[in-house]
Amino acid sequence: MKTNTIFNIKTLAIFSFIWLFASCTNLDEVVLDEVLGEDASNPAGALAAAYDRLGDGTFVDHGGIFSLQEYTTDEAILPTRGSDWGDGGKWRDMHEFTWKSDNAVVVDNWNKLTNGITRSLTAIQSVEESSIPEKKLFLAEAKGLLAYYLYTTLDLYGQAPYRDPMNPNAPLQILKADTQIDQLIKDVEALLPDLAEMGTQQTHHGRFTREAAYGFLATMYLNRAVFKDRFNASSSFNFTEAAATGTGTDMDRVIYYTSLLIDSGKYSLESDYFKNFARDNDKGKELIFAISQKIDYIRNGSNSFAYVCMERNQRTSAANRGTNAACTTPEFFATWNGNHDDPRFQQKYQYADGTWFKNDGTDVSVPATDIVPKSANLPWFHFNRGIEFGPQYGPILLSSGSLEMVNGRIKVSPLYMEKSTTTRMDFTPSLTFKNPAQAVFAQNEINQGARIFKYEFDPEGGNGNSNVDIPLFRLGGIYTMRAEAYFRKGNTAQAMEDLNKLRTSRKRESLYGSTPGKALTAIDQTVLYNEIGFELYWELYRRPQMIRFGKFDLPGTAKPASEPYRRVFPIPQSTIDVTKEFKQNQGYN
User: Fold this and answer.
1) What's the gap between Cα 138 and its chain centre?
2) Nearest to 243 by CA among 272, 222, 268
3) The RagB/SusD domain covers which part of the protein (predicted)?
4) H-helix or E-strand containing 177?
5) Cα–Cα distance for residue pair 433/440, rounded to 1 Å
6) Which DSSP state fits 406?
7) DSSP secondary structure letters along 44-66
8) Cα maximum dimension of the chain
9) With DSSP H G I counted as helix, E B as strand and the rest as coil, what are the percentages for the chain, rounded to 5?
């Protein structure tokens, strides 16, 4: 991460206090998980450690928060593919809605989030006890991060742990989503005067700025009705409730905070939608709050979101490949019917000499002039972006360990599955499981599923590392929030205007004349729902969206109709066993 340079410390001190869960309340009893250099009591180091928890797998890896927010929805599924991705059923549990309190994904993400809470509390204590010039700013950022970790934990698990960081004898508190959401909103609003505006005090989109708080407040208000009535069987949430603060309703506050961002002039929509997810997006025009990633051999960024869909025989260089894991479902793919010309659906790559990789069987070769950064002169092959389906083409890796070449260029050939060598690499949008209730493919079926190539595959540091910053709040998402708020208030004209701003601001590649997306002429709830998906797919927003729109409980591919209690995950049994203050969420006893 870039936080080690933000605070001008040479190395990042990563540490955690055990007192958050320990029966003893003595704050002097600490465990340093790792100390990679400077004194862990350094306030800057403590705050950097709190930021670092955003990365390090939590919000940047497909097994992190992504697996809870996306694999449980129609946007993503990770099936067992022949001999791969069985892993005790932990991935299938997410989509088949069979998870229990000992599921490894559920437990691991609980641990990551509560560790983020702990690190934030530690940073608050460290900054409060210091006399550094940046005390007011660092304290506001630490409290903002605490609120973000608490909110995410309450969203996913319905409960979250908390202790007063300044009271060594403070008891452990168990916060509940329905009663804590209003306090979180008030807490973040109280931070606004002390947070830096983006670009001031050396801030950028990797810091919790005032603009990040605006995006966060809009998110909390958008989902406040769900938090207050999570298990409403009919999903008839009260989005018109009086706001926790200020005037008007929840939706009025969403409009207020999103408008502050949209009207600020600090951000603008990218005409090339996929620039938001490119390896050089650290200067992106839409990024409001993002996880700064950098291949710096200290905390190398994660390439997971790009790597997880790409097939093992899809090679960006002779040293890089995908892993043939996740795909999208037929249900989500079908929402794009009639919209395959939307600039957000798919984008073909053009090389500097004008060659297009069309991935349609007409390609013969592409230039070998693009070189993988910091490599031994390895040619770099660029796959197309967006939702990829149908027969796939690309370079072939020879037994010599090099890509197949023709006339000094990278040869493009039909591709076959690495672990089923006679099976054509044909990403079928349909998923034909032998048992419709179980996401399991036979070895010769492992090609199935349309793939999401939204995030650019960065080959610089091997398959696992990346320079791509991962957006948490970006301008495109802010427009969708405001559109939804307008719609829920009955202002369909304003809602459609915001959605059309997104549609028409994006342009297709020059192969298609750089044409902008087509404007909507009418809007209803289905159109709104689909448009949010078009803009935000694979950005960790789908589960909350499906719950708000009453779609999360519905049956789908390898997913039965489910009960409302599944709208939150169970508290890990291992936590309940040692922390008696926690009571298991309803339905999981």
Assistant:
1) 25
2) 222
3) 336-553
4) helix 177-191
5) 6
6) E
7) HHHHHHHHHTTTTTTTTSTTTHH
8) 74
9) 35, 15, 50
Query: In this predicted model, what pLDDT tens digit does every residue of 423-479 receive, in sequence order?
Result: 999 999 999 999 999 999 999 999 999 999 999 999 999 999 999 999 999 999 999
Report in angstroms the alpha-carbon separations of 406 from 246, 367, 410: 66, 10, 6
Q: Which residues, at least 6 apart from 179, have a Cβ–Cβ distance to it below 8 Å? A: none
Residue matched to tokens 């700064």? 292
Contact between 312 and 451 (Cβ < 8 Å): no
Q: What is the per-residue DSSP string for 125-172?
A: HHHHT---TTHHHHHHHHHHHHHHHHHHHHHHHSEEEE--TT-TTPPP
Q: How far apart are CA 322 and CA 256, in angstroms?
A: 42
| Dist CA 144 CA 174 (whole Å) | 19
How far apart (Å, rounded) are the C-alpha atoms in residues 490 and 507? 30
Q: DSSP for 84-138?
A: BS-GGGHHHHHHHT---TT-HHHHHHHHHHHHHHHHHHHHHHHHHT---TTHHHH
Determine the Cα angle at 1 with ends 327 and 52, to 5°: 90
User: Phi then psi for 427, rounded to 5 degrees?
Assistant: -80, 90
Partner residues linked to 249 by β-bridges? 242
Whether residue 8 contacts residue 44, with contact meaning beta carbons closer than 8 Å, is answered with yes
pTM above 0.70, yes or no: yes
- Tell me the two tokens of residue 87: 């892993």
122-178 per-position pLDDT tens digit: 999 999 999 999 999 999 999 999 999 999 999 999 999 999 999 988 999 999 999
Q: Is the Cβ–Cβ distance between 49 and 82 less than 8 Å?
A: no
Pairing of strands 80-81, 440-441: parallel
